[in-house]
Specification:
14 strands, alpha/beta, Rossmann fold, 16 helices, about 400 residues, elongated, eight-stranded mixed β-sheet, about 45% helix
Length: about 400
């Protein structure tokens, strides 16, 4: 293996059309990768929802282009435009981040057609593509990639089982979390608790996420109605926005918990709200490795979460938090009741979760993991001594 003679040009491509966890990974890579070793460029969709994110990257000194995804084999104009852009930029390596199973899968073909030798594909969520054509494209994309990474072992297993990727060749590079600025967050967290009159007997429970079916709010509301029927008081604060905002508000009223459920909207930084919580609830129906899980745990917040995606890889049941089956409102209500009745037990689990995240799930580790993947793909493996974990190693 040779040492790097100059900076390697890395193109980060994000296939999503809204700001979420994948954009956070792109942000961390774009701003943290070593500038002495990597010349980083970012491609984002031109949709208005990403304008603020693109502007923030540019303000941080990152090179950003808005490039529409090619989502149809009939989009010859889009293919030609993307191919030309690749030919002009000539990156040494293209790193594609996929948010949805049905995401753009034509880029790998265009990367090869443009004469670019190295491709890394990262999958961020569990699930199969929506059609036979999309599955075929994804299969070919994964076969073309020099490296395939996943944010958790659950996603890696779907790539192995559904797409035939050799288990030993899928690398696990999980998401990360920043250590909180407790001095800045504490007074804001205190204000949140005062706003909702939270006490030990009227705990503040928090959930953060888009108001869409995936996040399982409807099942959480059913669980809260059960908790209320058991004579327990609480307040739920929901941070996030989405298409289900009005239906969920109507459901809360119909279940008789409308006065206890508060929609606080999308927050630029939910850290202080998480810090204010007596427990953080993640009722998702499916996930990859949700950032809010790591961000809650790093703040020592007790967590109740559904055992989906990569969540059980972070949270050992009754050690770092409580895990319940997805869409099981009664199991979720039981867990909430246990946290309500034994807050001391919940806080012990929160502290154990914080130790786990601070040791294993940091953005520094994420960036280092991807640097190792890049080095191996580019033939520069002697630059960094460690390797990212493979799916096979994760299972041991």
């Amino acid at each position: 293996m040779r040492s790097a003679p100059s900076r390697s040009r890395i193109l980060l491509v994000e296939s999503g059309q809204s700001v979420g966890g994948t954009e956070r990974v792109v942000w961390e890579l774009a701003t943290r990768l070593s500038h002495s070793r990597f010349d980083v460029h970012v491609w984002l969709s031109p949709v208005a929802a990403l304008d603020e994110f693109a502007a923030a990257l540019e303000q941080a000194g990152c090179a950003v282009s808005r490039v529409a995804e090619v989502d149809s084999r009939w989009d010859w104009k889009g293919m030609l435009d993307t191919w030309r852009r690749l030919r002009v930029l000539r990156p040494d390596l293209v790193h594609v981040h996929h948010v949805w199973p049905a995401a753009d899968r034509y880029l790998a073909m265009l990367v090869r057609a443009a004469g670019i030798s190295h491709l890394v594909v990262t999958e961020h969520i569990v699930g199969q593509s929506h059609s036979a054509g999309q599955r075929s494209l994804k299969h070919r994309e994964l076969a073309r990639a020099d490296a395939v990474t996943a944010v958790c072992g659950a996603i890696a297993e779907t790539l192995v089982q559904d797409y035939g990727v050799p288990r030993e060749s899928v690398r696990i590079v999980p998401n990360g979390a920043d250590l909180p600025d407790e001095l800045a967050e504490t007074p804001v967290a205190r204000a949140w608790r005062e706003r909702f009159a939270a006490t030990l007997i009227r705990p503040l429970w928090v959930t953060v996420g888009r108001l869409e079916e995936q996040k399982g709010h409807a099942h959480l509301f059913s669980a809260l109605a059960e908790v209320r029927q058991r004579g327990l008081d609480f307040t739920l604060a929901i941070a996030g926005d989405g298409s289900l905002r009005e239906p969920l508000a109507a459901q809360a009223e119909a279940l008789g918990i409308g006065s206890r459920v508060h929609f606080v909207g999308a927050l630029d930084d939910a850290g202080a709200l998480l810090a204010a919580a007596d427990a953080v609830v993640l009722p998702s129906l499916w996930e990859g490795l949700p950032l809010v899980l790591l961000e809650a745990l790093v703040r020592s917040r007790p967590v109740i979460a559904t055992a989906v995606g990569g969540v059980p890889e972070v949270v050992e049941h009754e050690v770092h938090g409580e895990l319940v089956p997805a869409a099981d409102a009664t199991a979720l209500a039981d867990a909430l009741e246990r946290f309500h009745q034994r807050p001391d037990r919940a806080m012990r689990m929160g502290r154990a979760g914080a130790e786990r995240v601070r040791e294993h799930y940091t953005w520094q580790a994420v960036t280092g993991g991807f640097e190792e993947v890049y080095d191996e793909a580019l033939g520069l493996a002697t630059v960094t001594p460690r390797r990212a974990r493979t799916a096979a190693e994760e299972r041991r």
